[in-house]
Amino acid sequence: MELLDRYLEAVKKHLPWQRQDDILAELKANLEAQLEDKEAELGRPLTPGEAEDWLKQLGHPIQVAARYQPQRSLIGPSLFPYYWYVMKVALIVTAIVYVIATLVQIATQTPAEMNVLAVLLRLPDGLMRTAAWVTLVFALIEFGAARCPQKFPMLVPPTNHWLPSDLPSFMQRHGGGKKPRSFAHAVTEVIFGILFLLWWLLLPQHPYLLIGPAAFHMQSWSQFASPFQLAPAWVQFYWWVVGVNALQLAWRIAALIRGDWQRPRRAQNIVISAIGLIPVWLLLTVPNHAYLTLQHPALDMAHYCAAMNAINQLIHWNVLGIGILICLLLAWEIGSSGVNAYRKRTAAMQ
Amino acid sequence: MTLTENLFDNLRLELRRGCLTLAVLAELHQEYYGYTLRKALAERGLEIDESTLYPLLRRLEAQGLLSSEWREEEKRNKRFYRLSSDGEEIFGQLLNEWKTINASINKIL
Questions:
Q1: What is the pLDDT of residue A160?
Q2: Chain B residues with beta carbon closer than 8 angstroms to that of A33
């Protein structure tokens, strides 16, 4: 029957090419046998209309051929949760990098040099590139794991290599009764951590970010230049602050990547608070609390000595206040950890 | 098609999928080619579309549960299928599983 041949030819186009002829021969034999049965039942050949109805009922050639294809997916259901998690982290990191790059560009270029549209379009472009790369990598993993699971056992998601006892305990998850931190909260902390660090790093070149128009008076060429200069202890203080914040940020990003941002961070907080005391201690031990000194003592001592001493005293009291605050926070964290450990021990004994 | 009908169709498809495999394996203790197998199943009350059965036979063969050979019958080359030794073993396990599920469902109902 000509219509059946046309139908089979249409199916053939969409069959897997390695087994095309074999599948088609089998399908043809089955359908011809079915046709013979139908015609024997009717006692006559099928009319063109009946033949058309019969073939239509078999299904569209593409659908029929598709059933012979192996089940295919770019990223299968077992790998998909990992893919989705990596995608979220990668997109967040991309967005953060974009924000940093944009802020650096804003800080280092004049508005005239900047193409605002290009800067704005960089984020969606970057996000799409990241998404494409993550998808490509996971598609390759899926391909390797599906084709050769024995050769690449490391590519098969480790669904069996985990222990329920490794999961965070209920007490840990809920931070001793507090609501666990949300993903958005954790991401916001990272973003603000980066923004703070960036702002802090830009301060030496752009003091106006801290003191606004008063930065003008710090320029030595200005006729209103300040007679004061910062003591060398501030340089050490500055880099200690960079170090403490970088450490905290790295810790938060690692928690985000590991997926355990909900865990309470008492140990981290204790370490950060303890290290945070070092720069404060550096300032508190500056000889004679000389945080500011005169640029030209011989010329300005008589005129600015009293003002300088007053400012230095004020800075000293402020630094001392900050030091006390950090000590209190540290004591609170240590105390809370002790209480939690005691509760856990008591709960385990019951 | 309404949402409920669509949902029913999907659930029915899921429910039938495993049962069809079991029925095909059971029927292929005896040798059949595609069309006669379909007729045999239909005679016992289990209708299967051509577009479901023929690819299923291929898949089960690729998994080693069926063996097949091309042979001429009534002046036409046909591919005959039969349960392989691996297929026998898997069929026994599946049948036990099905009986257990069936008994449990009957108790629940």
A1: 60
A2: 33, 35-36, 76, 78
CB contact under 8 A, A67 and B55: yes
The domain ranges of chain A are 2-66, 222-350
Whether the CB of A8 is below 8 Å from some CB of chain B: the reply is no
Task: Assess whether pLDDT exceeds 80 at residue A74.
Answer: yes
> Topology of B21-108 in CATH?
Arc Repressor Mutant, subunit A (1.10.10)
As a three-state string, the secondary structure of chain A is: CHHHHHHHHHHHCCCCHHHHHHHHHHHHHHHHHHHHHHHHHHCCCCCHHHHHHHHHHHCCHHHHHHCCCCCCCCCCCCCHHHHHHHHHHHHHHHHHHHHHHHHHHHHHCCHHHCCHHHHHHHHHHHHHHHHHHHHHHHHHHHHHHHHCCCCCHHHCCCCCCCCHHHCCCHHHHCCCCCCCCCHHHHHHHHHHHHHHHHHHHHCCCCCHHHHHHHHHHHCCCCCCCCCEEECCHHHHHHHHHHHHHHHHHHHHHHHHHHCCCCCCCHHHHHHHHHHHHHHHHHHHCCHHHCCEEECCHHHHHHHHHHHHHHHHHHHHHHHHHHHHHHHHHHHHHHHHHHHHHHHHHHHHHC
Say yes or no: ipTM exceeds 0.90: no
Residue-wise pLDDT tens digits, B20-77: 999 999 999 999 999 999 999 999 999 998 888 999 999 999 999 999 999 888 788 8
Does B68 lie at the interface with A, CB-CB under 8 angstroms? no
Chain B partners within 8 Å of A31 (Cβ): 35, 50
Q: Tell me the count of A-B CB pairs closer than 8 A.
A: 47
Which among A34, A58, A68 has the least Cβ separation from residue B35? A34
Contact A32 B76 (CB under 8 A): yes
Chain B CB within 8 Å of residue A67 CB: yes
B16 touches chain A (CB under 8 A): no
Domain locations in chain B as residue ranges: 21-108
Q: Is A30 on the interface with B (CB under 8 A)?
A: yes
Report whether pLDDT(A178) > 80: no
